[in-house]
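INTERNAL AUDIT FORM
Audit reference: QA-55
Scope: verify that the stored structure record matches its stored sequence.
Auditor: D.O.
Record contents follow.
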Amino acid sequence: MENKKFGQGANKMPGGMHRFAPVAKPKDFKKTIKRLWKYFKNEKRMISIIFIFLIISNIIALIVPLLIGKAIDTMSLNKSKVNFYALNVVVVVLLVSYIVDAFIVFLQGYFMAGVSQRIVKNIRSSLFGKLQKLPISFFDTHTHGDIMSRLSNDIDNISSTISQSTTQLMSNIIMITGSFIMMLIKSPILTLASVITIPMVFILTKGIAKKTKPLFKKQQAVLGELNGQIEETISGIQIIKAFNREDKIIKDFEQTNSKLKEVGIKAQILSGYMMPLMNVINNIGFAAVAGVGGILAVKDLITVGTIASFISYSRQFSRPLNEVATIFNTLQSAIAGAERVFEVLDEEEEAEDIDNAKTLKNPKGHVVFQNVSFGYNKDIPVLKNINFEVKAGESIALVGPTGSGKTTIVNLLTRFYDVTEGRILLDGCDIRNYERDYLRKCFGIVLQDTYLFSGTIKENIRYGRLEASDKEIEEAAKMSNADAFIKKLPKGYETILTESGSNLSQGQRQLLAIARAILANPSILILDEATSSVDTRTELHIQEAMLKLMKGRTSFIIAHRLSTIKDSDIIMVIDKGKIVEKGNHQSLIKKKGVYYNMYYSQFKNIEMQQEF
């Protein structure tokens, strides 16, 4: 019974974490507990039932040593007789106790698993729902790995703690309290003999923790370094092979791996002392109880059964006492994870639509920027007093050096960010006065880095308009010049795409993105470097598809290849957040300014490449 309840190694945490591994400390333990409790409120009834089961289970655990003592006392040492009737009764009661306890422990685990999974489901749903409401600025300032870690690792940590550590902590507290009371009832003198080892346990725990925590901290740091090397190696395997750096990579890996091995050995050896030394201290306590108990038994002050019961109680008292510190560390780690989740839940969401916001129906695509200024950081402006007008159906090309503010203009137009100063008008109305959902429906976006979701080609094209029929999807694919390569695939439109469509070429992915935009039938089209990562032949196919897509639509084109935007109605040169030139291709060439120099520097490079 005792082994079943407390037989876990005292230096191990649930989930395989080590007792002296560095623990992430929460910033505000009480506040986070209160917030977590809100998720527990819906489970009050079930938690109450589990708590009752805990009490019953621990009462049985406290009764068992008493019954064992009674069984021993049925044997009269002086008369060498055994009271078999009393012994049989005790054995039957013990057997029933074990069966009832096993059943209660099963029910407790069953109900707790349900409670923990429902709570974690609600937390996970809250977090995922929150992510959909956060502005783009949040994702621009947080790494995707960190966000995913909060959604998976931190929530899993909360889950395992709720299902294991919470009930174990409550059980241990009840057991410690109950065992101590039973020890006092049975014999205050033996209780004193038993608790003399407690200070030794705390001194030992503190001493080993002081030595091992820095080692485990270093181990985690080296492990992070090793993981980084592995990730870089897998991501850059082609470059490694191209430059014949396999031997160097292996050598670097072996150095880090050896370092991890050395620090791991030191940490494990030191922490490995914990259990043997703890057992020695506990055995000293048992020996003290047995010695003092033996003296009292000889003087007929207590029975042998009482000594046996007392040794069981002292074991049930000392083991959970050792485990409480371990469980508390696990709780701290989980609370720290919960804080990271709550940090996201506390993030400011995208600004709500204003009261009486307008519904944007049948947009024409007339766009005006009036004195627009903006900075991602208030102290560092990216756009400065931008003014321009694009009439419905016109195309405007944004050119300029990297970081000049081209993409920022379309981010403001789509309201991924709101302007700091000035305003943006769409069909004569400030875009902030429209309902955001309707505003974004009028945009079709094709980016340089095309993102495709896991699923079939058909499903990825349909993402542009979910209610579209199969026929409409095929028509969109034909218009984008994607139909030809799709039909050559073994399963055609039912072909499953791997992560981000990596089983297709860059050009094929781009054609699918254009098909998706065609299906959405937007009023305003945004093409952000849509042809920069493809070969010349594929670029011609994409340009042809883009011309079909742009027909009759207001189009914003961001491009570094100036040959692709010669036919734009307006070409706007952006530099350092300002419009330095504006006009069509011919007028800007005649001006012989910034655009002229940019265009002919590219043209000369192309000529040189062709001659070569």
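Auditor finding: record pair retrieved intact. The longest strand covers residues 367-374.
Action required: none
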